[in-house]
Amino acid sequence: xxxxxxxxxxxxxxxxxxxxxxxxxxxxxxxxxxxxxxxxxxxxxxxxxxxxxxxxxxxxxxxxxxxxxxxxxxxxxxxxxxxxxxxxxxxxxxxxxxxxxxxxxxxxxxxxxxxxxxxxxxxxxxxxxxxxxxxxxxxxxxxxxxxxxxxxxxxxxxxxxxxxxxxxxxxxxxxxxxxxxxxxxxxxxxxxxxxxxxxxxxxxxxxxxxxxxxxxxxxxxxxxxxxxxxxxxxxxxxxxxxxxxxxxxxxxxxxxxxxxxxxxxxxxxxxxxxxxxxxxxxxxxxxxxxxxxxxxxxxxxxxxxxxxxxxxxxxxxxxxxxxxxxxxxxxxxxxxxxxxxxxxxxxxxxxxxxxxxxxxxxxxxxxxxxxxxxxxxxxxxxxxxxxxxxxxxxxxxxxxxxxxxxxxxxxxxxx
Length: 415
Description:
The protein is α+β, with helices and mostly antiparallel strands. It has 13 helices and 17 strands.
């Protein structure tokens, strides 16, 4: 899981230092910084894939050896924090005004992985980068890139071997993150004991899935006959459900959630085949079979979200924006229960944005530490903080439901 994340000068986020749980909610008005936080996670994902900095921000077409990548909203030109009055954030280093920086700490199998990167998106280069990990014997430094003039096309990094003497230096293409290139060093150049840690860190960085489910896509026949992961917009939804239904335990749990979704006599999910055997999603109600083109947007979104939470190839990080979109208010309690239940399984760490006071009302007060409120200062900087850090929050939520405080705008008025 992503345990900690520090963000400096990225988009509207001037500074953020956050810790997370398996289930995390982000709330706030429009343009308060929620989507920019999600964009930060997608930048880390692009680093994990080994894309160039330009590709991370401007996109990459699908090839035989790589996935299609949409790029980060707005591209690299708006990726560095800029104060409202037109002056960039005060630099802490000579080149800081043109860069943003991340420090991410992941936990996996009783180990911690710390990755740091400073990037100049307008030039499409890495300005600084470092990686360390912690196991039972303590922390191990793996590499650190050396700050250099940003006009050079290469960056040098020192590789730590744990032995005495000066760490050897190697030259890397600074348009691609070092953490990906370092895996190409020969065994004699890069300590064998660090390779597994680097590989695991790269997997943790890249294994993020953002879902932006589109009902028109969910109504389509799947191009694949069977799959273990749904597409970002719902591509191959029916193929994923087909995989779920082939597993007896998952089929029963999946259908149980769908039955809770609607007061109608929905019996179970089904998969029908097209002329070429391509699957399409449907449900049965009594003797009737209702296929995806006839189902409501809300039913499809709930079914697809449920399927994503049961997918065999579950990502380490799952991003869900506007999770309540298209789902009837009376069904949102079930949605909250589903998210809590699946997060407790520990297969995916879930990050959610929502504008729904109903979702917040149904959350247990124990989860309030993992609800993050996003707001903007007079200078336009996004402030992201746990709601429990807001003055008088605990006292007020003992007297009034959190959802009502949110609806009344109490949080915005208290800041």
